Amino acid sequence: MEQSSIDNKKITGGCYCQRIQYEIQLPVKWCAHCHCSQCRHIQGSPLVTWFGVDKNNFNLISGKTAIAWFESSKSARRAHCIHCATPLFFEGDNWPDEIHITRESTQADILQKPQIHVFYDRHVNYLEIQDNLAKHGGFDGFTLLTTEQKNIQQHQINAQATSTQRKE
Ligand SMILES: [Zn+2]
Ligand SMILES: [Zn+2]
Q1: Which domains does the chain have, with CATH numbers?
Q2: What is the distance in A from the centroid of ligand 1 to the CA of 64?
Q3: Ligand nearest to the CA of 137
Q4: Helices (H), 10-146
Q5: What is the pLDDT of residues 112-157, one digit of tens each?
Q6: Which of the ends of the chain has fewer CB neighbours closer than 10 A, N or C?
Q7: Residues of the chain with pLDDT under 70
Q8: Beta bridge partners of 99
């Protein structure tokens, strides 16, 4: 699609009970799979797919009073619907100009497929991922991992299993 037609495209999304509705002017800035422990635990999912939008391109259409924000860390806040609990938004001090939005909160084509995995070295061991996307992790979650580091959690799990067997 030509850039000019992307620039004209708007999409909508929102929560499951539809009280909260948002509108976005495309293009999005990025789309990524996150494996961090906060995303996994708070959203009850082995990974969470997010896309980032310039705040100027985001517009809340309805449901302002249905949104609950909470501080998920010293530098980040997350929002969900107080009625249906759908996780929707993330804002972090590291991205002051962006709002991050859960990919599953819209059925629209955002014209950007997921590009990378972040915090990949925290990934769960019960979901197999065999795509060709770049795997990032490390201290900040965003450093490109080596093949060895990608499998680090699996190694730790194998090592635990081995040491348990030895005790028996
Ligand atoms: Zn809702
Ligand atoms: Zn995350």
Answers
A1: 3-167 (3.90.1590.10)
A2: 11
A3: 2
A4: 37-43
A5: 999 999 999 999 999 999 999 999 999 899 999 987 777 655 545 4
A6: C
A7: 1-7, 151-168
A8: 53
